[in-house]
Amino acid sequence: MRVLFVASEVFPLAKSGGLADVSSALPMALTRQGIDVRLLMPGYPSALARLIDPCVEARFGSLLGIKDATLVSGRLAHSHLPIWLIDAPSLFDRPGGLYQDGHGRDWPDNALRFGFLAHAAAMIARGFLPQWKPDIVHVNDWHAGLTPLLLALGGGPKPATLLTIHNLAYQGNFPPETLSVLGIPNRFFRTDGVEFHGQVSFLKAGIRLSDSVTTVSPNYAKEVLTPEFGCGMDGILRDRGESFCGILNGIDTDLWNPATDPHLANPYDVHDMSGKRACKADLQSSFGLRVDRDRPLIGFVSRLAHQKMADVVLESVPSIAAAGAQFVLVGEGDPALAAAFQHLGDRYRGSIAIRTYDEALAHRLYAGADILLAPARFEPCGLTQMYALRYGTLPVVRKTGGLADTVADTTGAMLSCDMATGFVFEDATLPALVGAIERALALYRQPLIWRRLQQQAMLRDFSWNESAAKYMLLYSRLLVIGNPQSAGGCVMGGRGKSCETGSHMTRVLRGRSSRRSI
Ligand code: GLC
Fold first, then answer.
1. Which atom of ligand 1 is nearest to the CA of 249?
2. Per-residue pLDDT, 231
3. Residue with the nearest Cα to atom 12 of ligand 1?
């Protein structure tokens, strides 16, 4: 089975968040299961520079008016996964972020940048490269969301398509003129097409036109069907019925392994935690904190964003300091929040340390901290809590999305049945967060119980094995062409309507066999 996996970021070539981690770890796990996976992503300069064995494989001609764009093949460091990068300097070679300039403003040509990604994906899907043509195109998030629509244009056979939503809040909504810029007929601009509140939505295109849709945890898959979490797309997702489901993300357990992690001062494992104490001392001394093995150290590895409750964490810092604990932030984002955290760092020197995001620092913080804060107003899956658990650092999470699927609270019942792994709170409020932190600090003072919780956390299996098998099953079902009853169905068992009972437009666009072009 051949799968083209399309994403806007892939670790270690380019990373702004969890999407990059998943976009290397999941294809690796699928490859281990015997699938021929190839990746496609934009050729940001950092990505081209890190590519192993780069080689120009094809030229795009003047696709969408962009001249000199080429497809560069190569491999990822470590995993050796084959990947294609779109080398189009006018779209991707610029200083600043992957999606925004240095001032946090979206690049004005994002529709063209990621429209081009979708066009390139559709071309490869249709046999642009004579030596390799996929059976499945697996697109991720809005950046690649137009691919299924582009595949629906034109005739001939085409691969099955799957969209994975990593965060429904990012939708890729652009002005209506975008359609003609991207060579897409205006007939798609309708409510049961890609129109979304007067704009063209790349994500809606993906949701409507993919053969199947997944998101990154079962709990988030339920939440987004409600107006509270649906970001205006809950109805569109409900229309997908059984062809929409949640498959829990895993983590790369080789990369995230305290026994072999090259970033750590000392390795450790569940049987011998002495290395974790050394990691804590290393963290305290290099971050300018008082070196004290008995002082609880609380970490926060996060984008400074409303989603992550960074504003509430900021407010909780004085209580953390008053409780005699230390706090380390590794992250960046909202400039006002960053400045406010920095201010607290200056005020509580020796107890609070603030650093911008750096992959190696993040590894050291997961290892050296005792407790990790991972609160969120919503969280599709969240990976930081899983990294923390693997490093014996107990997470404080809000009961939402994938956080609720991956952390078991230390309530009395859970403690007695050896399942608890962290501290879960319900409301997105300061008292709820501080209450959970206080519960964590109280148990930290009971070393025997704490040790047992750490063991339980470290022994949980967050590898990709189980979830990659679910994706494989889903791919296999998608390959059942001409069998619409099962082809688009999800692997989690069914609630809701079948994909064939979606809107009229969906039926028209998907065709009876779900492959036929319109
Ligand atoms: C996004 C989501 C996060 C998820 C990650 C990988 O960053 O916000 O919850 O874990 O994608 O799927």
1. 12
2. 98
3. 166
The arithmetic mean of pLDDT across residues 330-340, rounded, is: 95
End residue of a domain, out of 435, 458, 481: 458
Assigned domain for 256 exists: no
Range of the domain at 376: 274-458
What pLDDT, on a 0 to 100 scale, did the predictor assign at position 102? 87
- Residue 22 has which token pair? 């998943």
Question: Which of 26, 165, 167 has most ligand 1 atoms within 8 Å of its beta carbon, as the pocket-test mutant?
Answer: 167
Q: What is the DSSP letter of 304?
A: B
Report pLDDT for 506. 34
Q: Residue of the nearest CA to atom 3 in ligand 1? A: 382
pLDDT tier at 253, thresholds 50, 70, 90: very high
CB 211, CB 370: distance < 8 Å: no
Question: What is the total count of domains within the chain?
Answer: 2
Residues 280 and 304 in one domain: yes
The mean predicted confidence, pLDDT, of the chain is 92
pLDDT at 296: 98
Q: How far is the CA of 432 from the centre of ligand 1 (A)?
A: 23
* CA 397–ligand 1 middle distance (angstroms): 15
Which residue has the least CA distance to atom 5 on ligand 1?
18
Q: Residue 117 and residue 106: Cα distance in Å, rounded?
A: 17
408 and 479 share one domain: no
Question: 436-454: per-residue pLDDT in tens?
Answer: 999 999 999 999 999 999 9
| CA nearest ligand 1 atom 7, residue | 18
The answer to whether the beta carbons of residues 400 and 376 sit under 8 Å apart is: yes
Q: Which residue has the higher pLDDT, 345 or 489?
A: 345
Tell me the C-alpha to C-alpha distance, in Å, between residue 427 and each of 220, 241, 389: 17, 29, 22
Amino acid at 197: H
Q: Give the per-residue pLDDT at 154.
A: 76
Are 237 and 117 in the same domain? yes
- Band the pLDDT of 510: cuts 50, 70, 90: very low
Output the ligand 1 site: residues, CB below 6 A: 17-19, 22, 166-167, 216, 249, 379-383, 402
Query: Does one domain contain both 423 and 394?
Result: yes
504 located within any domain: yes
Among 87-91, 349-353, 377-381, 496-500, which is the least confidently predicted range? 496-500
- Shared domain for 83 and 143, answered yes or no, is yes
Same domain, 29 and 60: yes
Confidence band for 505, pLDDT divided at 50, 70 and 90: very low
What is the Cα–Cα distance from 119 to 149, expressed in whole angstroms? 10
Side by side, which strands form the sheet with 136-140?
52-59, 70-75, 82-87, 36-42, 2-6, 136-140, 160-165, 212-215, 244-246
Q: Residue 491: how many CB atoms within 10 A of its CB? A: 19
CA 216 to centroid of ligand 1, rounded, Å: 7
Contact 38, 80 (CB under 8 A): no
